[in-house]
Amino acid sequence: MMWYGGGWGGWIIMTVFMVLFWAVLIVGLVALVRYLAGARHQQPGSPPPPGDGEWQDRRAEHLLAERFARGEIDEDDYKRRLALLREHR
Asked: Is the pLDDT of residue 77 over 80?
């Protein structure tokens, strides 16, 4: 029990180092998880974050083109909606 010179000083030093050890370990684990989660969301070819207005416009046009290709809307409706999308940019 007297490894650190005995008395209260040894217990205080051990407590401080134990708290520092756990703090560094927890911060390291949180940083690792955030890094891995961030890397997973930013894979090559993935779309940009939703805050990008240009990306949202292209996505809306793409969805409209898909609906036209599936036959859900006719050509006149497609052209009218596409013009409306492009007008409100």
From this structure: yes
